Fold:
Amino acid sequence: MIRRPPRSTQSRSSAASDVYKRQVVIILLWKISQFFGNGPLWQMFVNIQDENCSKNSWEDLLFVNNFVFGNQLKKDCIGWGWYLGCEMQIFLIMPLVTVAVLRNKTFGKSLIWCLIAASLIYSYFLVVVKGYKEAGKAHSSDFNQHYYVVPWTRAPPYLFGALVGFWYVEEKGTLAKKIASSRLTQIICSIIGAITVYGIINVISPLQKDRNAFTIYEYALYIAGSRLVFVAGLTLFLLPAFLGATLPNIILGNKFFELTAKLNFGTYLFHFVVIQSQAYNSYQSIFLSHETMLYRTIGTATISFFCAFFLHIFVELPFANLEQLIFLNKKSRSS
Structure:
């Protein structure tokens, strides 16, 4: 039997609560952060942050900072929030794709595949033409503005996820039931998915040691398709859990993962604030080894989750309850 997927794999929060959580972080950076540090560089950070948030916080609130500051993210109030703008823009487009599929499945799904192909082709030729493989160009401002932070290069994983979602909803028993009832098939799916994810992460490692390890065409192929391949592998790995397999559900359905799933967005918003606080309050130069990076990661993650917990309690939950109340009232009136 196909059961409900574990809660840790489901949607995190509403768009309304996301907006207000970002507002809380902006206020924290803009007006409150000055009281949380006294290091030698802290006041410099506070002054820069105050100027950026005074002039540019509106881009963050409207989720357009990835366009406005595509090549100058250091001037943005929440520079690391460009990804949230990109995600919101894709999210706003997805209903159009959904309507196309609901009206005509063949046309709608063909449209999704065409959009995926167009994005991959654009990304491939952009990397080749711009020569982003060369040293100094891989993460330049031009690379950020034209490739790294724009939604049309990051859309394929979302579009692929939509296709998987449509398949999951439409599937009435054939392949889904076979996967759900066969332990061997579940293991094969998870193994193939794990190998795919591991492979796409590590295939680029030779280039980190030798810039000439890949040709420009191989590099462009990796840049264009790596995210889609990663998501496809992750889908295969998690597919048994979505179809009711016992072992993955025991792990992903654990209360700990349910809690972290609720806090992950708030943690993302706060993590860089914590990193900046550590850096600008330090009274000595920071030297990183694998050991110190591990210590800093554990500390940063712990503090970020702690801050996200309060953000969840005082911002997300009230808005989620308000949203439910509004929709329940509408349903009761209509009935």
Summary: The chain has a mean pLDDT of 78. The longest helix spans residues 290-334. Residues 207 and 213 are 5 Å apart (CA to CA). The radius of gyration is 22 Å.
